[in-house]
Amino acid sequence: MTLDPERDLEITRIIKAPRSAVWDAWTKPEQFAKWWVPEPETCRIVAMDLRPGGAMQTEIAAGPGETFGPHMSACYLDVVDGRRIVFTNALVGGWRPAEQPFITAIITLDDHDLGTAYRAVVMHKSPEDRQTHHDLGFYDGWGTVAAQLAKLVEQS
């Protein structure tokens, strides 16, 4: 995939764990909830219907014991077992249009000598949306959760 520097943001990382472990962390709700939001916030998985057209819905709380609120409502566009997940919040489950579309994310996992080459590309409809996401702390947020993902699977 070619990166559009005007509209895309990207996180890459080598994770020192097998690709299957990273895949499991993306596709098993009990593992996904452990790393999908920056600590000390906590995540609850409402829906994870891992197929094209399936819903991905998460909620977030400020910390353990706090009230959960909306976080991400999205639709899976493509799922290639063990290798790639594509989702967007332009749609929700069942291909229904979302109220406030913002991103499409492509997550790819490739074998690497040290484990897994992890790549997350987040696409936006405009340079302005890309800049907004950047200014909201994309690299902090997505970078933090990628580090949490790595920590989870590298300890297993």
Question: How would you characterize this protein structure?
Answer:
By secondary structure, the protein is α+β, with helices and mostly antiparallel strands. Helix content is 28%, strand content 39%. The protein has a 7-stranded antiparallel beta sheet with strand order 1-9-8-5-4-3-2. Strands 6-7 form a two-stranded antiparallel ribbon. α1 crosses α2 and α2 crosses α4. The radius of gyration is 15 Å and the shape is globular. The chain starts with 7 loop residues before the first strand and ends with a helix.
Task: Give a topology summary.
Layout: E1 8-15, H1 19-27, H2 29-35, E2 42-48, E3 55-61, E4 69-80, E5 84-88, E6 91-92, E7 96-97, E8 104-112, E9 115-123, H3 127-135, H4 138-155
Antiparallel strand pairs: 1-9, 2-3, 3-4, 4-5, 5-8, 6-7, 8-9
Helix pairs in contact: 1-2, 2-4
Distance between the amino and carboxyl termini: 30 Å
Number of strands: 9
Mean pLDDT: 96
Any idea what the radius of gyration is? 15 Å
For the biggest sheet, the summary is: 7 strands, antiparallel
SSE run? EHHEEEEEEEEHH
- Spatial strand order of the main sheet: 1-9-8-5-4-3-2
What structural class do helix, strand and pairing data support? alpha+beta
What gross morphology would you assign? globular
Helix segment count?
A: 4
Strand content: 35-45%
